[in-house]
Each structure stands twice: as C-alpha cells, then as structure tokens.
C-alpha cells in the first residue's frame, strides 16, 4: 500500500503504548521514535506544535495527536480487527467510557499515587471510579466483550501501570478483594500476546517509580 | 421512524445548545427538558449517573452523556447535513480541534474571566489559544469550510458566550483588532439562522453574568 506510519512515543507512556498495541493488532507496520520527554525534539514540535507531547501518529507525513483521536483514526483507516463497534450507540458508549477513563480515572489515580493535590480525596475518588468500572465490566472477559476493544486499550494504565505504581507507593487501590472483576480483567489483559509484548518491562517501570518517589520525598 | 429523542439541557449551557443546534440542522424533532443545575432531577441522575450533568441525549430510551460523544452519535445516526467529514484524516482533525477547544480553550477562558485560579496566567493562555484558533481558521468562513461543521458547533462558547462574558467582566480577549478572523467568524456564526434561533437571549445571559460577578465580588 506504500503506507508510511511513524509513532512518536515514550517507553513508559500508556498513551503511546495504546497506539502501538492497536497498530500491532491490525498488523500495520510502523517505525517507532522514542522521545526524550525532557527535551522536545524538533520532529515532535513539528508534528504536534499544539500539545508538544507524545503520542503522535504520522501517516504518510500527516500528523495526528491525542491518543483517543489517533485510536479512532487507526480503526477507521485500517479495518482489520476493529476495536470500535459499528453500531452508533455501542460506539458512543465506548467513546464515553474512554473519556471517563482518561479524564476522571487516570487523573484521580495519578493524584492518589503521587499525592500531588488532596491525596485522601483522590484516593476516595479513585476507589469510586474503579467501582464504576467494576460495575461496567461485570462478568465480561473484556470491556469489549469476548475480545479486546477500544475501552480495554484505553484502560491499559489500569490494567498494567497502576498495579506496578500502587505497589511502589504503598497503596491498595486495584486489589482482588476490592474489585474482583477488574482485577481479573487486568490479569487477562496483560496476558494477551499482543498486549504483553507491547508493555514496558515491569522492573524498569517500578525502578523508575521508585527513583521518582525517592527524589520527590527528598525534595519535600 | 418512531424515534423518540429527548435532550436534557440548561438554558445557558453551550454544551446543551450545541446538541440542540445539530439536531435542528438535521431536522430531528426532540423534546427538551430544562434542568435546574442546583437540584439534579431524578431523570438526570437516572440517565447520567456517572457525570450527573447536562447535556444528556436520550434516543429511544437509550441515554448518552458528554457533548462531544453525543454530537458524534447524532452525526452517525442521522445522516442529513453531516457535520463531520467522511475522510478519516479530516475527521481526526475535527476531533482534535474539538478536544482542544473543550479542554484547553474553554478552561483557560473561563479562568481568565472569573479569575478562579491564576487570572493573569489564564489570560495569557487564553490569548495563546485564541491565536492558535485564529491561525487554524485563516480566511475560511467557518472551521468547517463554507458551512458550519463539528468544530464550529463545539466552538459555540467562543462564538457567542465569550463576547457576552468578556464584556461583563471587563476583559478584551476576542476582539477585532487582536483576532480579526475569529471575530469575523463569531459574527458569521451567531447570524446563521439555526444557530441564532438556538442561542440564549443575550440580555438574560449578561444579566446572569452580572449577578454572578456581583455575588462573587461581595463574597471576596
């Protein structure tokens, strides 16, 4: 097809990893560019001058930023293994939950773990949001039903990053006792071949979190 | 078709008005429910238990929340007068700008006008964001080209509400001198028949803003 696909990401960014996961699910070859988040590269600034952040997908020299927009674009451009339903209502529900996960859950979970703002309130909110997802998932294997869909991909932070992060900072947010459905889902999710091969190494991630925790404790 | 369409909104909510505008553009009859934002009605809580806010679209008893999700659903369900392009890249660009307007612009503009957080910084950010939109619009009549599209609808706050609000709080953000393209666009936008008939009365809106300003000044 002569498609040239580039992904600008960072090894520990769940947003970039979600873009890569979907390209892999659809069998779309791409070239990966690791960005140094402390120094914005000229290419990143060229391709995403508005947000200046990863991930960016560049398809035949046309750039797209913002992972939820990118994921929808990929699904509409390469039709194999669709991650969004065709039915407009079911699709709207996926977009709704994706927005909820990105805007509400991840914000609360990040604050709960790093205590940037009101930590106790953030913990409470995080547990509320996880409960909401627990009820939405019910006894389904994945949010997408029998197979991984848009919401699963978007929830990758909860499926993998959160369990590593909560261990480092000493919180019990996503546990088997509190959220059995979601906990089981996270095990299923990270053990899918395409997801598994596309995750950052757990030791490297916890090492980064430990170092970050030590440096933020030292500066308090 | 037997379609039953309900919209839960609030008279001064640009998000609810955007949903109504698109239904009107597509000739979809709907029943409107005005919500009292201080008392969440049982119906609102039933239909949007996650966010508990307007707008909500209920189509044949199936509820959808979050205006960007609702607008996309409407466009996919009722095909007349499409507001999103068919081409996946052009569509992705619309979704990107819509997100930018909702998340970055409106947040900064609201803070600039009401001074909730760092007012000076918010003013600076607002001007930056308006400049970004000015450059994106260029000499096009609408963001959608010759006719109103998704981005125009989502930018309705900038087209109408902002000019009323900045007048009340005594700021000059969107002016003809600073942003001639965007200023001209806002005139064109509010004078389109379907948009015009769907806006809140300007006097009522400025009256509300004046009262809100007086009460927040008194409580300082």
TrEMBL record, chains A, B:
<dbReference type="InterPro" id="IPR036249">
    <property type="entry name" value="Thioredoxin-like_sf"/>
</dbReference>
<dbReference type="InterPro" id="IPR004046">
    <property type="entry name" value="GST_C"/>
</dbReference>
<protein>
    <recommendedName>
        <fullName>glutathione transferase</fullName>
        <ecNumber>2.5.1.18</ecNumber>
    </recommendedName>
</protein>
<dbReference type="GO" id="GO:0005737">
    <property type="term" value="C:cytoplasm"/>
</dbReference>
<dbReference type="GO" id="GO:0004364">
    <property type="term" value="F:glutathione transferase activity"/>
</dbReference>
<dbReference type="InterPro" id="IPR004045">
    <property type="entry name" value="Glutathione_S-Trfase_N"/>
</dbReference>
<dbReference type="InterPro" id="IPR045073">
    <property type="entry name" value="Omega/Tau-like"/>
</dbReference>
<dbReference type="InterPro" id="IPR010987">
    <property type="entry name" value="Glutathione-S-Trfase_C-like"/>
</dbReference>
<dbReference type="InterPro" id="IPR040079">
    <property type="entry name" value="Glutathione_S-Trfase"/>
</dbReference>
<keyword id="KW-0808">Transferase</keyword>
<feature type="domain" description="GST C-terminal">
    <location>
        <begin position="87"/>
        <end position="208"/>
    </location>
</feature>
<dbReference type="InterPro" id="IPR036282">
    <property type="entry name" value="Glutathione-S-Trfase_C_sf"/>
</dbReference>
<dbReference type="Pfam" id="PF02798">
    <property type="entry name" value="GST_N"/>
</dbReference>
<dbReference type="Pfam" id="PF00043">
    <property type="entry name" value="GST_C"/>
</dbReference>
<dbReference type="GO" id="GO:0006749">
    <property type="term" value="P:glutathione metabolic process"/>
</dbReference>
<feature type="domain" description="GST N-terminal">
    <location>
        <begin position="3"/>
        <end position="82"/>
    </location>
</feature>
<dbReference type="InterPro" id="IPR045074">
    <property type="entry name" value="GST_C_Tau"/>
</dbReference>
<comment type="similarity">
    <text>Belongs to the GST superfamily.</text>
</comment>
